[in-house]
């Protein structure tokens, strides 16, 4: 009795699927953020002392040990609470994005200690143009203020946005605060690390899923101790325990890849702004094709806005022309128009490089039996199987199901009756090899470029001039700077136009504009040819004119009347179950218990476009609300009053980007 009266109770949040913190006892109080080892059932797990009142009523177990890691910073804990509240995720699941058992394991062996420090703000400052210098000064001032701000850095491709935001990084270094730069794709870190090193004398720390466990652990510890100045990373870098974060940069802020679609469903661009706010930091959103969301926020004065209207060093923006496939069709069974082949031929003759862009992996998106018309589809998903000829397999791009092409059609048993329909990048590479047998080609897709190492090798080969024609998916579209690349051909500009996706048009314009932006970034002007069957379509017209502000005005005019984002809010509920009837029943129950509130509409339930995905049947509901409606509260109450059996999952997607 005497002993227990001396014990202190505290709340500990566990990086596990619980929303609530647990109560434990210790001999003396521990500051919030302290990492501790505690019993959970038969096991011991790591947790974090959370700044909220413990439960005084129930018996509590004792903290087993205190870990020798600096406490999580208060700003990070506030961020975790905020993200959970906004996305309706359990707090423990969000904490797991920041703290994992594997990050805290004691050192395996004493490896070579990595030195993450030493970035020197005055190592090699650039000689900025007047427009760049103005933008850099504004960002430097924002960092110097030690206060929250958001700036949209809107500059045409090749205008020096990277160069400019690196000056903001330099200021964070001078202030002895940390900076984080988020990239939508790990492959892009290769060129940024290079430029960073030239600017600051050392490489930044990097953070993404491809790091070895040892390097992850070292990096996490070094960040926690304040030994890391700058991190370049994927969206999860937002959850690192920076002691005093002064700058958050989101490069290519328009990218849908910043939306995490599994587990905790969050948009890293939006959460980056929150992270900056809670840390009193400056946030920079950079893009040549900013999202309507960010443009609108700038227009309303919530964000500052900086423009870089011209390419660096007098480089011209590329000439973009449509190739009307009705007038200039490819040869039968081929996919590249003679006009585009002519452009490639001319670039190669000048000793320059060409790029062909098609946002489709594999050889052919559809395989069918020429006898009975049977289409090869995935047994687990509402999707066709995609032929990957290099691997001699049909693959599902959604669940990774794979199978060899069967010798007979499963429907009519005809032999050798399969034909590939439509092109993927492998088929385009084959066509290039036929037409230009001596050209050196490189295919860049997520199948070939699986990590930063492969990206590095590909970029090096292109820069060294060892590649004549690059053929790639969206992976080649953004960020890259290849001075010898002067000709870009878009194989199928119409690909993204179909479907009822809210942002299909916006995304297509952004993607194609970015692809076009790879051409002619140095001395030789670039040329872009866009193959389309509907060049008069407003989206294709916007790509051709390059007038993105005008396109966004049209987009805004379409979305505003119906209160579609960013002029209203959406929350998607995705109901899924292995048993179709169970999914149906819950979808109907949700429909019956739906909120009936002014300014809120419920759309659905409807079968999801992927009505079957990874073996689960799916229904979707969409809550659509006016901007000022507190959608989280409404959704939470809605779910709470609906009976959802354990076999059925309801994923909540606040601000959905994908409607599949
Ligand atoms: P963006 O990020 O806007 O696409 P970058 O920052 O990649 O543009 O700049 C394009 C190219 O021009 C890069 O190779 C970059 O190093 C170069 N560059 C831009 N501004 C300058 C400058 N002021 N001095 C030297 N090189 C520059
Ligand atoms: Zn599948």
Write the layout of secondary structure elements.
Blueprint (H helix, E strand, L loop, with lengths): L1 H4 L2 E6 L8 E5 L8 E6 L2 E8 L10 E2 L2 E2 L7 H14 L3 H8 L2 H4 L25 H15 L4 E7 L5 H14 L3 E5 L6 H12 L4 E3 L5 H13 L4 E4 L11 E7 L16 H12 L2 E6 L4 H8 L4 E5 L10 E6 L13 H12 L3 E5 L8 E4 L16 E3 L4 E3 L6 E2 L14 E4 L3 H11 L5 E4 L7 H12 L5 E4 L12 E6 L13 H13 L10 E6 L5 H8 L2 H12 L8 E10 L2 H13 L7 E14 L2 E11 L4 H10 L8 E6 L6
Helix pairs in contact: 2-3, 2-9, 5-6, 14-15
The chain binds adenosine-5'-diphosphate and zinc ion (ZN).
Global outline:
globular
Using the coordinates above, name the CATH class of the largest domain. Alpha Beta
The gyration radius over C-alpha positions equals 27 Å
Uncertain residue segments = none
- The total number of structural domains is 4
Mean pLDDT, as a whole number? 94
Q: How many alpha or pi helices? A: 18
Distance between the termini: 59 Å
What does this structure look like?
By secondary structure, the chain is α/β, with parallel strands linked by helices. The protein has 18 helices and 28 strands. The chain folds into 4 domains: 8-72, no CATH class; 130-313, Rossmann fold (3-Layer(aba) Sandwich), CATH 3.40.50; 315-360 and 423-556, Rossmann fold (3-Layer(aba) Sandwich); 568-654, Alpha-Beta Plaits (2-Layer Sandwich), CATH 3.30.70. The protein is 30% helix and 23% strand. The strands form 6 sheets. Strands 9-10-8-11-12-7-13 form a 7-stranded parallel beta sheet, with helices on both faces. It has a 6-stranded mixed beta sheet with strand order 5-2-1-4-3-6. A 6-stranded parallel beta sheet has the order 14-24-23-15-22-21, with helices on both faces. Residues 378, 380-381, 383, 396, 398-399, 401 line the site of zinc ion.
